[in-house]
Amino acid sequence: MAIVPNLARQRLAAGELSIGFGVHHLRGSAVGMIAAATGYDWLFIDMEHGATSVQEATQIAIAALGQGITPIVRCCKDALFEGTRALDNGAMGVVVPHVDTVEEARAVAAAYRFPPLGTRSWGGPPFAYNFKPPGTAEAQVELNREILVACMIETPEAVANAAAIAAVPGVDILLMGTSDLTASMGIAGQIGHPDVQAAYATVAAACAASGKVLGMGGVYDETWAREYIRLGARFVLGGSDHVLLMAAGAARSGFLRGLQPG
Q: I want to staple 127 with a disulfide (CB 3.0 to 4.6 A). Which of 90, 142, 206, 237 is the partner?
């Protein structure tokens, strides 16, 4: 049985944008179908800020594997084991926040790669193969190649260490956590600030030098999204379920409130 395709990785390999749908509040098997139907490539299942359990995250992920969208989870920095459990149970990628140093990046890469590239343990149902995996050695090589691993860059320290972080084997993406980056810089919410622009340029150069992908999160202003994508961001978080629902809901209610009964 062939491995389930990692559509997010395929987009990136083709040099295209890979756009994520944030899952914070939604639950259930329809989440991936909704995201795929509205033009997204991957789910950003948030176990850092959301109240999503590993059980809920993996049920969403298992369903997504057959819905034309790639399930990726964000675990807490100090709970890398939740990421490995998610990978064993349907996820095809992990995002780790607040990676500030090359040592932390190496720990992340090791946790999510099988030997000899890392220390990930072999086990769990082979959801990535629809329960019909090849031999263990072949599956581990293939999963090492297909699973996406992203380190979030969210502090000036991380920006300064971006070149070393990007050079770590097993790290695929440096994802800018723009909201926390601005907060750590003392300019909370100023996503277009010159210091933020400089940070993006620094991390973009680091990614280019090591053949890694620049990611963008926390930028929903069209002007600055365009600018940072122009700089090279291709792994892009397009928004979270509650924000998108509120925007659509407000637009619809505003339209209806503006109508006059005959």
A: 90
